[in-house]
Amino acid sequence: MGKSAIEIKELRKDFGEVTAIERLDLEVAEGELFGLLGPNGAGKSTAINILCGLLEPTNGSVKVEGYDVRKESRKIKELIGVCPQEMGVFPYLTGRENIEFFGNMGAVPKKELKERVDGLLEKMSLTEDADRRVKTYSGGMKRRISLVMALVNNPKIAFLDEPTTGMDPQSRRAVWEFLKGISGDSKTIILTTHYMEEAEYLCDRVGIIDHGKLIALGKPSDLMREHGVANLEEVFLKLTGRRIREAA
Amino acid sequence: MNGQRVMAVVKKDLRKMVREPALLFLIVLFPMMLTLVFGISMGGVGGDTTQTYILGVVNHDTGPSSSWSTRFIENLSANPMLSVQSYADDSSAETALSQGKMSALVTVPDNFDESCDSFQTNPGDPSLWVRATLNVSVDKGSMVATQAIPPLIQQALVTTLSGQQSSMSLPVSLGTASMVNAEKRSTFFYMVPGVFAYGTIFIIMTVGQSFTMEREEGLLRRMNTTPLTSSEFMTAQVMSNMVMAVIQVVVVFATAFAIGYRPETGVAGIAMAFLIVSVFSLCCVGLGLITATVAKSAGAATGLAFVFIMPMMFFGTFVTAAAPNPVSSEIGKFMPSQYVTDALTSLFSRGAPVMSQSVVIDLAVVLACSIVVLIVGMILFRKYGNR
């Protein structure tokens, strides 16, 4: 593994009496497209929120690009882009205005921002609808806009929390191709998803979380081979005795 | 502080104001409607006018030589502030007065001519005058009429006897108050300063709703994942809400002006009013942040905002001006809106100079309150509201 983009050591997160993450150790290399899999409530989003600086860990050490999330969250926020699980789009702004807003948050120079916005809208097939207000968009279009908003500042690390949920298969496939296209080089992508086929197709490595614990980690092909099954869904079944959607 | 980020948030908020019908209504249409409705209901339409009072007259001096009483009634009729209606007897006139068909009733006694003649014959010797009394009854329901009408009758009496409008000793007596300035200002004139404060108070609700809504929709969390700092975000909020407050002042002022309101101040006074309201908007942003901190949803924020809106409205805006009393005045001292209303009243209604002591003190109080409330609101929201 090359240089680490993310280093998590003995992470624990409690919400009162409830433990969301029990003991998580994880390293993600720079340029890796890493999938965090698991049912709802497994602790995926909590882990992402800690990495983004939205939540404080209860215990353990978390570093993003070498910066400690407790002490240097401001530095981290300059390096990351986040596509949250909820839509997180301004309904009264147009698609273009939403993207520009987050570009401005990243202090992207005006000329460069316009070029980037146009390019990203084109890649996501949203150019025609870019100047309509987002509240008139379908759920899938909002998801695509939300994804572009996370990437417009050209982040070193992109956290994509279930970015394709609610999309039709065609749109989902388009997003997959888009993500394949931008991964690599020095851009790291952390993806959470329910869709095992999405993880199989996109991810260099995956980590499977259940009840706040990392229960499997590796390349999808290695995990399937190791457990003697045909897909990641069956890996989860074998490890937990449940299907991922039943668990959700 | 990054200007690009601050301006992006300001632009977003202003776009929201223009594009969200509910917000546009609260910021622009509501103050416009409020001003119009108050202007119409409080007599502000068409500007300040000369009031005309209906005066009933019963003349008991109707003998063959009643030229003095006739001349007196003619002089009453010549006054543009009086509309004189003659009645044949006391009973019908008193009934009309009690039914509110007139503002006052004057009864000319049967010895009026005789009294005037005695004055004419011996103007310098009051001991030879025949004394007479004009009975005047005024509708007590009209405070202005009780003050304004007796002097008008006195004026007509003097003109009748001396041919000129001057104060002099007369044989005919009338219970009079000192002369009052009978120029009539509409109630609206005195309420407009409070309307400015009233409109701005609703920023509490818009800020409270806006923040809770953005929190509910995950937008605040999402913005928290960007390099946008708390100070940049709050600066942008202050700027956008100040712009909204200025827009409200323009709307209220333009609407009031269109229906005839003319303040007793010039451009500098109006500029000072903009400054005072803008400073007050900071206080409203602070209270809006406190509302958003406590409220769990946008709907709850609407209700909670009234915890701040109601006292400021009833003890510090035009409502107080409409029905002043010692208790509300005392409570009003704790309401920033009271100082805004007072400063604007000094400027717009009393014609006070821009840098007069009362205006400067009011501005200082509003500024101090606004800074404290804004800081408290920011601290609370940052600690407990931005989750």
List keywords for this structure.
heterodimer; A: 248 residues; alpha/beta; Rossmann fold; 2 domains; six-stranded mixed beta sheet; 10 helices; 26% strand; globular; B: 387 residues; abc type-2 transporter like fold; two-stranded parallel sheet; elongated
Structure description:
The complex is a heterodimer of chains A (248) and B (387). By secondary structure, chain A is an alpha/beta fold. Chain A folds into two domains: 1-79 and 156-165 and 181-248, P-loop containing nucleotide triphosphate hydrolases (Rossmann fold); 89-155, no CATH class. Chain A has helices at residues 44-51, 73-77, 95-105, 110-123, 139-151, 169-182, 196-202, 220-227, 232-240, 244-247; strands at 4-15, 18-29, 33-37, 59-64, 67-68, 80-83, 157-161, 188-193, 205-210, 213-218. In chain A, strands 6-7-8-3-9-10 form a six-stranded mixed beta sheet, with helices on both faces. In chain A, helix 3 (95-105) packs across helix 4 (110-123) and helix 8 packs across helix 9 (232-240). With 387 residues, chain B is an alpha/beta fold. Chain B is 66% helix and 7% strand. Chain B has helices spanning 3-19, 21-41, 67-78, 90-98, 112-121, 143-162, 187-201, 203-216, 219-224, 230-258, 267-294, 298-316, 318-322, 326-332, 336-348, 357-385, and strands spanning 53-59, 82-87, 104-108, 132-133, 135-138, 172-173. In chain B, helix 12 (298-316) crosses helix 15 (336-348). The longest helix of chain B is centred in the middle third of the chain and has 29 residues, at 230-258.
